[in-house]
Amino acid sequence: MSKIHYHRGDLPPDLTWPATIAVDSETMGLSLVRDALCVVQLSAGDGDAHVVQLTRPEYECPNLKALLVEPAIEKIFHFARFDIAMIRRDLGIEVFPIYCTKIASKLARTYTDRHGLKDTLKELCGVDMSKQQQSSDWGAPQLSDAQLAYAASDVLHLHAMRSKLDAILEREGRMELAQACFGFLPGRAALDLAGWAEIDIFAHM
What we know:
Blueprint: E1 3-8, E2 20-27, E3 37-43, E4 48-53, H1 62-69, E5 74-77, H2 80-91, E6 98-100, H3 101-108, H4 117-125, H5 145-156, H6 158-172, H7 175-194
Parallel strand pairs: 1-4, 2-5, 5-6
Antiparallel strand pairs: 2-3, 3-4
Helix pairs in contact: 2-7, 3-6, 4-6
């Protein structure tokens, strides 16, 4: 059974992590200008989740920051573009290297337009996750058990989903293209933060 570890402010200094971790974030909304980063959750792929409720506005979390910038540890996100932009804006760090299961899904599962975490997870891993707490007050002083369970569910299955997506990408000859997209994500996030979120700079017009 999964265990959820609730940390206030930062990760404990004595945790050890494998070469690949799953990461997600919770915010007060979806605006990179208006809304604050409130929570970062992680999993080592071992069935446990670590939910860090950040201290705002200081964001003093040296252990979390060190983990997210560690070049020897790959970070799996679903829709990394938003998460790493929020982390860059509020924590002042650039997360790298990155694997994005949403990009991988769009490149691999071309037979569908349903690439949200819930749909992708249900098809590839047979896991039916609840999104009930997606819209809730993540800036509350105390996170509820329901919020903690929701935050954990966003990272507990990303390792398994990544494995399924990798198999399709390899089969279809798109792994190199996926890796190139992952490598561009910090630049894409920087463009979003600089005001080019809705503009395709690669378009002719």
